[in-house]
Design goal:
The complex is a heterodimer of chains A (about 70) and B (about 180). The relative contact order of chain A is 0.27. Chain A is built from two helices and four strands; from the N terminus they run βαβαββ. With about 70 residues, chain A is an alpha+beta fold. In chain A, strand 1, helix 1 and strand 2 form a beta-alpha-beta unit. With about 180 residues, chain B is of the alpha/beta class. The longest helix of chain B has 16 residues. The radius of gyration of chain B is 17 Å and the shape is globular. The chains are: A alpha+beta (about 70), B alpha/beta (about 180). Chains A and B meet through helix 1 and helix 2 of A and helix 1 of B.
C-alpha cells in the first residue's frame, strides 16, 4: 500500500498521538494515506475514535508485540 | 451544529493545569472549537518566567524583558509579583509539593513515561487552534500585560463574554 505520510509516536503517551495526528493531517488532501505507529496502551482505541470523529476511514491495522500501526485515508 | 467546549482554569497548580491542557488538546484534536479561560491563579501557567532583579544599570534593548516591568500604581503588586512569579515550568503541586521538590520528581516521572510536560501541551494547544482568553479583573489585579505571556493572541474579556460562551458550548469545565 502506498503511504503518503508516516507518523511515528513510539514511546509517547496520550495525548501526543492525537496532537501529532491532527497537526500532520491539517495540510493534507482528501484521499491521501497516512500510517501512524505507536505503542501506548490506549493508542489503538484513541486513534480509532479520533479518526471516527474527524471522518477518516481506517484501512489497515497491524500489530507487532505492543507496537501498533494504523493506516487510514484522510 | 458546531461543537464547542470551554475550559476555565482557576487553579495555578501543576496537576490541575496539566489536566486542563490535556482535555483542551484532546478536544481540539477531535475538531472541537475550544476556548480556554484563565482566572486568578490560572494565569501563572501562561506567564513568562522573568527574573526579579537585573544587575544592569540601564535597560539594554536587545536584552529587554530579562526582568518584569509591572505597570503599577501601588506597592502591593510588585510584592505579589515577588512571591508569585509564575512560569509553566515552576508551578507547585496541589499535593506532595515537598517545598518545590515534588514538581521536579513529578516532571521526571512524566517524562520517563513519554507524557508531555505543561509547556509542550501549551504550545501544541496553541498550534491546534485553542483560543486563550484571560479575565480582565485578573489582568488589572496582578498588573499583567498581554505581551508578557508565552502564547500570542491572548484576548482579554469579561464575565459577560464568558456567560455567552458557556451558554453556547456543550461542555463547560471549571478546573
Amino acid at each position: 500500500m502506498k503511504v503518503d505520510k508516516e507518523i511515528n509516536v513510539v514511546g509517547r503517551s496520550c495525548p501526543i498521538p492525537l496532537i501529532s495526528l491532527t497537526k500532520e493531517v491539517q495540510g493534507m488532501q482528501k484521499g491521501q494515506v497516512v500510517r501512524i505507529t505507536g505503542n501506548d496502551p490506549i493508542f489503538e482505541s484513541s486513534v480509532v475514535d479520533c479518526c471516527q470523529e474527524r471522518g477518516h476511514t481506517i484501512l489497515d491495522t497491524t500489530r507487532e508485540g505492543r507496537t501498533i500501526s494504523i493506516v487510514f485515508a484522510v | 451544529m458546531e461543537r464547542k467546549v470551554t475550559i476555565l482554569l482557576h487553579s495555578g497548580d501543576l496537576d490541575k493545569a496539566l489536566a486542563a491542557f490535556i482535555f483542551a488538546n484532546g478536544y481540539a484534536a477531535l475538531g472541537v472549537e475550544v476556548k480556554m479561560w484563565f482566572m486568578i491563579w490560572g494565569h501563572n501557567c501562561l506567564k513568562k518566567r522573568r527574573s526579579l532583579f537585573s544587575f544592569r544599570k540601564q535597560l539594554d534593548p536587545a536584552q529587554e524583558g530579562a526582568y518584569r516591568v509591572l505597570e503599577t500604581d501601588n506597592i502591593l503588586q510588585p510584592m505579589v509579583e515577588m512571591l508569585n512569579r509564575g512560569g509553566a515550568k515552576h508551578l507547585p503541586l496541589s499535593r506532595l509539593n515537598l517545598m518545590g521538590l515534588g514538581p521536579l520528581l513529578f516532571g521526571r516521572m512524566l517524562s520517563k513515561k513519554g507524557i508531555p510536560d505543561l509547556k509542550e501541551l501549551i504550545q501544541s494547544a496553541n498550534e491546534l487552534g485553542v483560543k486563550f482568553i484571560m479575565c480582565q479583573i485578573c489582568f488589572d489585579a496582578f498588573g499583567l500585560s498581554v505581551d508578557d505571556l508565552i502564547v500570542p493572541n491572548v484576548e482579554v474579556k469579561g464575565v459577560t463574554a464568558y456567560a455567552k460562551d458557556t451558554l453556547e458550548a456543550q461542555v463547560n469545565l471549571f478546573i
